[in-house]
Predict the 3D structure of the following.
Amino acid sequence: MNYLRVVANIKRHPCAILLLAQLLALVLYPFVEDTDSGRIGFGIVGIVVLGVTIRMVERTPFRTWVGVCIALPAIALLLLRMALDLPQLLAWSSALESLFYFYAAGSLIAYMLADRRATTDELFAAAGTFTLLAWAFAYLFLLTQALQPGSFAAAHDPEAPRTWTELMFLSFALLSSTGIGDVVPLRAPARGLASIEMFVGVMYLATVVSRLIGLTLLEQKADVRR
C-alpha cells in the first residue's frame, strides 16, 4: 500500500520530482566536476532530468513530440561526449539542451496560466520552471563561451574558462535579480544574454508567480466566506 501511495503521489506531483532532481544535481555536481567519473555521472543525471522534463511536457498544452525531437539528439550528444571524450561537441549539446529547457519552461508556464486555481502541483511547477530557465540560460552561457572564449571572467582566475557550476551560479543570480557575484560577462554577446536573463526573471515573477499568489489568496478568501 505504501508503494502504491508513493507512485500515486509521484503521478499527482511530477513537477516536485523535476525540482528535486535539479536541486540535487546543483548540490552534488560541484563536488565531482573535477573528475572524469564525476562528469560522466553528472551527464547521466542530466539525461534523467531531461527524461523527467519530457514527462512534464505531457501535462501541458505543448506538443510532446517536439520536446522528444529536441531531447533525443541532446541525449545522443551527451552519450557521445561521455563515451568518446569529444569536447568539440560541447557547443552542439549545450545548444540543444538550452533549447529543450526553454521549451519545457514555456510548456510549464502555459500549463500554469491555463488553470483558474492554484494547485499544489502548480506551486511545484512555478519553482521547477524557475530552475528550468536557470539551466537553459546556463547552457546558453556555456555555448557562448565555447563559441567565443573569454566571454566570462572571474576574479580568482580571469583567464580560465568558467566551469558549469560558475555559469549556473551566474544564471541563478541574474534570473533572481540578486546580482552577478564574482563571475562577470565581458564580451557584448555575453552581456546581451545576461541582460535578457535579468528581464526574463523580472517578468516571470511579475506575471506567473504573482498570478499564482493572487489565485491562492482568492481561494483562501473563498474558504473563509464559506
Summary: The CA atoms of residues 61 and 111 lie 7 Å apart. The chain has eight helices and two strands. The two ends are 35 Å apart (CA to CA). The helical segments are 2-12, 14-28, 36-57, 64-84, 90-114, 120-147, 164-175, 188-225.
